[in-house]
Amino acid sequence: MHREHTGRRRNDAARQDILDAAAALIADPGGQPVTVDAIAARAGVGKQTIYRWWPSKYAVMLDALLERARVDVVDEGDGTLLGDLTAFLVSSFAGAERPGGRAFLSTVAALAQTDPAARDLLQQFTSRRREALRTLLQRHGVAEPDLMVEQAYGVLWYRLLVSGTPLDRDSAERLAALLTLQADRRPSTVDQFDEGARN
Amino acid sequence: MHREHTGRRRNDAARQDILDAAAALIADPGGQPVTVDAIAARAGVGKQTIYRWWPSKYAVMLDALLERARVDVVDEGDGTLLGDLTAFLVSSFAGAERPGGRAFLSTVAALAQTDPAARDLLQQFTSRRREALRTLLQRHGVAEPDLMVEQAYGVLWYRLLVSGTPLDRDSAERLAALLTLQADRRPSTVDQFDEGARN
Amino acid sequence: MHREHTGRRRNDAARQDILDAAAALIADPGGQPVTVDAIAARAGVGKQTIYRWWPSKYAVMLDALLERARVDVVDEGDGTLLGDLTAFLVSSFAGAERPGGRAFLSTVAALAQTDPAARDLLQQFTSRRREALRTLLQRHGVAEPDLMVEQAYGVLWYRLLVSGTPLDRDSAERLAALLTLQADRRPSTVDQFDEGARN
Amino acid sequence: MHREHTGRRRNDAARQDILDAAAALIADPGGQPVTVDAIAARAGVGKQTIYRWWPSKYAVMLDALLERARVDVVDEGDGTLLGDLTAFLVSSFAGAERPGGRAFLSTVAALAQTDPAARDLLQQFTSRRREALRTLLQRHGVAEPDLMVEQAYGVLWYRLLVSGTPLDRDSAERLAALLTLQADRRPSTVDQFDEGARN
DNA sequence: CAATAAGCGAGACGGTACGTCTAGTCTTATA
DNA sequence: TATAAGACTAGACGTACCGTCTCGCTTATTG
After folding, report:
1. Is the pLDDT confidence value at C171 over 90?
2. C-alpha to C-alpha distance for A28 and B99, rounded to whole angstroms
3. Where is the HTH tetR-type domain (chains A, B, C, D) (predicted)?
4. Residue C192: inside a domain
C-alpha cells in the first residue's frame, strides 16, 4: 500500500484508510477484539495519526460507523400512506440488514450506552431518517407522528439489539399496515365515532 | 463491613455483597469504568471469590442486573383491551424508570451486543414480560400479537437505548391508545377475511 | 520455561529471571536497543511485574548491573605496596574486562549521567572497591590515598568511557609501578624539599 | 525572535540558533529530556532545518558541545615539570568547571557510550588537549607519558562521570605534585637506585 | 526580468517504545 | 477448607519522541 504524503496538511487518504480499516474490523473482527493497533496496522498508519485526530478508539469506530450510515436511501411509495410507509420501512429494514449492518448498528448502540460522544453521534445519524419518516407521516396528516416514528424505529432497534429477529421484508410490510391502521382512524368520521366510543 | 466465615460452605452473604457491589457500581460508576477489582474491593471480597462463581466480569454484572429485574410487576387493568394495555405499559415504563433502572437496562443491552451469555440472559429476562404482554393481547383476540409486542417494547427500548427520551406515564397511555386503534380494526370484514386466510 | 507461582508473595524466581534477562540484553543487545518488552518476553514475565517492582526501565537495568557487580574479587598481593597494588589493579582491570563487563559498566555510567537513582547506585557499587583500595593504601602509609585511588580508578574508567583502550594486565602492572613511585617518595628528603617549594 | 531569510543559501544565523538552543537545553534541561522538537522550537526553526544539516539529534548535541569546547585554554608554566604540569591541570580542571561545563562533558560522554558518531567526536575533542599534555610531558623527558596522561585525565573524568567530586584548584595542584614525583625518578640516578632497591 | 532553485517554518506522518490499566489465574496465609 | 489478599501473565491503551515528508513562502541565481 502506498499513500502520498501531503506535508503539513492533513492527509485525507490516511483518514479514509483509517476509517475503512476500522469499518472492516468492526464488520468482521475475526474473533479478535477491535484494537487500535490493528486498525493502525491495517490502515498502514502510525497510532499517533489516529490519536492526533480522534480522541479515543471509540471515536474512530463511531466515525467509521457514521461514514457508513451516510449512504442515503431514497424511498418513494405510491402516494398513499400505506404505500409510502411500506416503501420507507422496507428500505429501512433492508438498509439495516445490508452486510455488516447489524454489527455496525449494534456496535454503535453499545458504545452509545457508555460514551457521551457516541451518544451524540448516534442521535445525529438516527435523526436524519427519523425526520424523514416524521415528515412523511405529517404529509399524510397523521395525528401522533412522533409516537409512530418511535414505534417504527422501535421495532427496528428492538430486533437489532434485543431480540435479534431478522428485519425481513414481510415484517416491514405488516408493520406498515398496522401503523396505517392507527393513522387511518384519526381524520375520518369513523375516528370521531370511535373516540366518542372510547370515552 | 463484617461477614461471618462459613468455612467450607459457599458463603451466600459474600455472593450477595458481590451482586450488590456490582449493582451499585453499575448504577453509579462515578466516572470510573466498572472493574472487577472495584467490585471485589467494594464487596470486601477477594477476586477469586468472584471468579469461583461467575465465569467473567460480564456474568457478574448480568447476574446483578437480573437480580434487580426479578422484582415482578403485577398490573391489572379493567378488562378492556385499552384498559389492560394501558395498565401494562404504564407499569412497564415506570419499572424501567425506577432509580438506576435506565443504567441497568442500557448496560445489559450493551453487554448483550458483545457477550453471547449476556445475549441469552437478556432474552431470558425480557421474555417473561414479553410473554405476559402477548398473553394479554391474545386474550383480547388481537390479530398480530407478536408485532404489537415488538411495537410496545420497541418504543421502550428505543427510548432507553437510542433517543434517551423519558418513559413517562403519558407516553405509555398514548401508546396504549394507538395500539388499541390497530387492534380495534380487526373485527372488520377485511380483517375477518384475512384471519380466515391465515388459519 | 516454567516458574512456580508463589501466590500473594513476591516471586523471587521471576525477579531473578527479569534481572537475568536484562543483564543478557545489556551484555548483548544484538543490534536492538534494550526494551522493556524484550526484557519481559525473555524473562517470560508480564510487563506489569516489572513495573510493580521497579519504577522505570533504567532502574531494572541498574539493578541487573548491580547484581553483576556483587561478584567480589579477592586479591592478595605479597605484602609490599607494589605487590599488593599490582594484585589489586590487575584483578580490577580483569574484572572490568570480563565478558559483557565493558557494556555493563559503560551503560551504568551513561545512565548515571541522567538518572539520579542511577547516580546513587553507581556510587554505591564503586565505593566498595574504592574503599578496599583506600584501605590497602593506608595500610602502607601512603600520604595521599584518596588522590591515588582516583588516579587508579580514573585510568580504569577513562579507558572504559573515553578512550576505549583495553584494560590489559600490562597496563595494570605499569600503573601500579608508577603509583608506587609516588608513594615511595613521601618520607624522603626530596619530598620535604618539594613540599617546602610548594608552600 | 526575528531572523533574516537568506533565500537559497544556508542561513548561518539559523545554524547558530540551533546550536545555541541545543547548548542551552543541555546545560539546563529543566527536568525535561532534550528533544529535537524542543531544540527546534527554542531555535525558532523547523525540524527539517535541523535534519537537513545534521544526521541525528546526537550529532546536533555533539556539535553544540564541540562548539563550546573550542574555547582554547592556553596554559604556560614556569618551565619546570611541576610548574608546567600544575598550570596545565589547573586550567584543565577550571575549564571543566566553567558554568555548564559538567553538564556538557557528562552529556557527551553519556552519548558516546551509545552512539558511534558521538564516540568519534568525543575522541576528537579530547585528543587535542591530551596531545598537548603528552607533548608537555615528553618535553620534560617523562618515561611513561601515555600512562601519565591517562592518570591526569582519568582523575578529571572520574570526578565528572563517576564520583561527582568538584575539580578544584587544590586537587589539580596536588595531582600535579604526585605525578611529578613519578616522573622525577626516571632519568635521574636516584631512580636507578630506587629501581635497584625494588628488585 | 522572468524562471528556477534551494533554504526555510510548519506540522502531519510511520514507527517504536514507554508506562498504565484491566481481565482472569494462581498461591499463600488467615480464620 | 473457603476466603482475603495480592502477585502473576497477557495484552490493549494512549503518550512521547525520532526522523521523513510535503506545503507554501522567501530569497539568490540563472537565462
Report:
1. yes
2. 37
3. 12-72
4. no
The answer to whether B126 contacts A175, with C-beta atoms less than 8 Å apart, is: no
Residue linked to cell 397511555: B173
CATH number assigned to the domain comprising residue D151: 1.10.357.10
Confidence of residue B59 (pLDDT cuts 50, 70, 90): confident
Measured CA D44 to C1' F27 distance, in angstroms: 19
Collect all residues with Cβ–Cβ distance below 8 Å to C6 and sequence separation of at least 6. C12, C13
Each residue's pLDDT tens digit, A17-72: 999 999 999 888 787 889 999 999 999 999 999 999 999 898 898 888 878 766 66
Interface of B with A (CB under 8 A): 82, 106-107, 109-114, 119, 122-123, 126, 144, 147-148, 150-151, 153-159, 161-165, 171, 174-175, 177-182, 184-185
How far does CA A109 lie from the centroid of its chain? Answer: 10
| pLDDT band at residue D152 under the 50/70/90 scheme | very high
Q: Which of A112, A151, A185 is the closest to B151 by Cβ? A: A151
Please answer whether residues C158 and D158 qualify as being in contact, where contact means their C-beta atoms are separated by less than 8 angstroms: yes
Q: Distance between CA atoms of D130 and D108, rounded to whole angstroms?
A: 17
Split at pLDDT 50, 70, 90, the class of A196 is very low
More confident residue, A27 or A146: A146
pLDDT of residue D130: 93
B114 CB contacts (<8 Å, ≥6 apart)?
Answer: A110, B58
Residue B20 CA to nucleotide E30 C1', Å? 25
* Same domain (yes/no): A144, A118: yes
Nucleotides of strand E within 7 Å of the protein's CB atoms? 5-29, 31
Q: How deeply is C18 buried, as exposed, middle or buried, from its count of CB atoms within 10 A (0-12, 13-18, 19+)?
A: buried
- pLDDT value of residue C90: 95
Q: How many CA atoms lie within 13 A of A138 on its CB side?
A: 7
CATH label of the domain that carries residue D18: 1.10.10.60
Domain boundary among A47, A68, A89: A68
pLDDT at D195 over 70: no
- Interface probe with C: pick from D81, D120, D157, D181, most Cβ of C within 10 Å: D181
**Domain assignment of residue B33, yes or no:** yes
In D, which residues are within 8 Å of C148 by CB distance?
178
Average pLDDT over residues B66-95: 84
Size of interface C-D (CB pairs under 8 A): 127
**pLDDT for position A197:** 41
* C4 CB neighbours strand E below 7 A: yes
- Residues in chain C whose beta carbon is closer than 8 A to a beta carbon of chain D? 82, 106-107, 109-114, 119, 122-123, 126, 144, 147-148, 150-151, 153-159, 161-165, 171, 174-175, 178-182, 184-185, 190-191, 194, 197-198
Rounded CA gap, B47 and A11, in Å? 47
Q: Are the C-beta atoms of residues B132 and B88 closer than 8 Å to each other?
A: yes
B18, B43 contact by CB (below 8 A): yes
The reply to whether A56 and A152 lie within a common domain is no
B192-196, C161-165, D49-53 — which is least confidently predicted?
A: B192-196
Q: Is the pLDDT of residue A199 over 50?
A: no
If asked whether residues A113 and A177 sit together in one domain, one would say: yes
Query: Are residue C130 and residue C173 in the same domain, yes or no?
Result: yes
Residue A4 lies in a domain: no
Q: Domain total for chain D?
A: 2
User: Quick one: A135 and A58 in the same domain?
Assistant: no
Query: Environment class of residue B199 by beta-carbon count within 10 Å: exposed (0-12), middle (13-18) or buried (19+)?
Result: exposed
Residue of chain A whose alpha carbon sits nearest to that of B186:
A181
Do A28 and A80 belong together in one domain? no
Decide: CB of C2 under 7 A of nucleic strand E.
no
Give me the CA C108–C1' E17 separation in Å, rounded.
20
Assess whether B39 and B121 both reside in one domain. no
Mean pLDDT of D129-156: 95
Does B123 reside within a domain?
yes
Question: Is the domain of B136 the same as that of B109?
Answer: yes
Domain extent for A150: 72-186
Mutation target to probe the C interface, by most C beta carbons within 10 A, among D119, D161, D191, D195 is D161
